[in-house]
Amino acid sequence: LNDDKKTKLISNSRQQLSRPLFIGNKIAFNAHFNGIDNIYSVDIESKEISALSSSKYGAFNPTETEDGKIIFNDYKINGYEIAEKTITEKPVGDNTFVDFSSAAEKQENTGNVFENIPDSTYQSKRFHQALNLFSFHSIIPVIDNEYVFGLELQSNNLLNTMDFYTGAKYHRDLKRFEYTADISYKALYPIFSVLYRNRPKRTFYRAKNVSQQGDWRENFVKLNASVPLSFNARNQNYSFTLNAATSFTQRYMAENMPTNFIRELKFPMEYNFTFNHSVRTTERDIAPKWAQVFRATYNHQPFDKNLGGEIMALESFFYFPGFAKNHSFLASFNYQKASGVNQYATEIATVYGYN
Predict the structure, then answer these.
(1) Are residues 89 and 196 in the same domain?
(2) Where would I find the beta strands (DSSP E) of 234-324?
(3) Which of 105, 125, 151 represents a domain boundary (last residue)?
(4) Which residues, 6 or more positions from 144, have their beta carbon under 8 angstroms from its beta carbon?
């Protein structure tokens, strides 16, 4: 700046120029022309730039001493140190600076991203729920227990309001097949579901003080109405489920059965109430650390007086933290009372070897 006249000494560049200082008729400053922060000087007349330091890690903040030297901060392995050096001008040298932005620019600056905006037009049309109730997506293996296994075809519609499952299972102890079909409609309350089974059956009975084995097949159809309710309070989950169901059983292909063998079971009624409380756990845990489940079931035959009988079952399950991180203990306390034609029915699974 001379007589309000400005002179540009260094052209525009991507340099962080700082701490300018007059030394004679030159100006010392900080820059990184060779890729490393160092001290440089520019001649006011010729505009030539020279290097005054050659630090490996960075030199900053030059100051001229009374004896014509410069002192500055020299960055070393242990941090900043104070260095003194005779003023010696050297060429700037090759620029070793790695410009990462240039590589990014070549990758990203491939043109105007708004030039080819997709202009596809998608037409909205009415979704007919009644025409889209089935959407088959999977065939999965199913294993009920060590004796019963098979394959199942699954369908869930796009709105997840109707489920349909059908399959076949093999009873290896009976050497016969079972055919299944289940359908459930969940768009309204209560949730209605229909279950169908064509299955083999075997029983043992005593005739003339001799143990006999009898086999048959049966068509079993069950209609169920369910009202599930669930509530959440932070990490506490509560659910209540009320079920009412009835069924129809038709037995055929009886082999070695007594003359009083019952061929039809007409509409027994089943009621079920379940309460569940659990503390939310990780998604992959098989069982929760803290949970309580209470279930009450009652089954009787109000429409067929010749088959009087009932069964009542009370079940409870308690989960407790186990020894390991993802381990749980389960304690179960149950009670069952049966009478009449249901005297030998088992609503609650018995332990192995129970007689």
Answers:
(1) no
(2) 236-255, 264-279, 291-300, 309-321
(3) 105
(4) 169
- Please give the structure tokens belonging to residue 111: 């043109």
Check whether residue 215 and residue 309 sit in a common domain: yes
Give the pTM: 0.59
pLDDT by residue, tens only, the chain of 355 residues = 566 777 788 878 778 888 888 888 888 888 888 888 889 988 888 888 888 888 888 899 898 888 888 899 999 888 888 988 888 888 887 777 777 888 888 888 877 877 778 778 888 888 888 888 899 999 999 998 889 999 999 999 988 899 999 999 999 999 999 999 999 999 888 999 999 999 999 888 888 888 888 899 999 999 999 999 999 988 899 999 999 999 999 999 988 888 888 888 889 999 999 999 998 877 777 788 899 999 999 999 888 877 888 999 999 999 998 888 888 899 999 999 988 877 777 888 776 655 5
Helix (H, G, I), strand (E, B) or coil at 106: helix
DSSP 60-76: EEEEE-TTSEEEEEEEE
d(CA 40, CA 52): 5
3-state secondary structure string, 146-188? CCEEEEEEEEECCCCCEEEEEEEEEECCCCEEEEEEEEEECCC
Q: Which two tokens stand for residue 146?
A: 């060590």
Phi, psi dihedrals of residue 104, rounded to the nearest 5°: -65, -35
Instruction: Tell me how far the alpha carbon of residue 104 is from its chain's centroid.
Output: 35
Domain residue limits at 55: 18-105
Contact 193, 185 (CB under 8 A): yes
Rounded CA-CA distance 239/274 in Å is: 8
How many domains does the structure of the chain reveal? Answer: 2
- Measured over the CA atoms of residue 210, residue 213, residue 219 and residue 225, the dihedral's sign is positive
> Residue 101: which residues within 8 A CB-CB, separation 6 or more?
none
* Within a domain: 217: yes
Tokens of 259: 């003359």
Helix (H, G, I), strand (E, B) or coil at 97: coil
- Kindly state whether residues 196 and 323 are assigned to the same domain: yes
Q: Which residues contact 26 (CB under 8 A, 6 or more apart)?
A: 41, 42, 43, 44
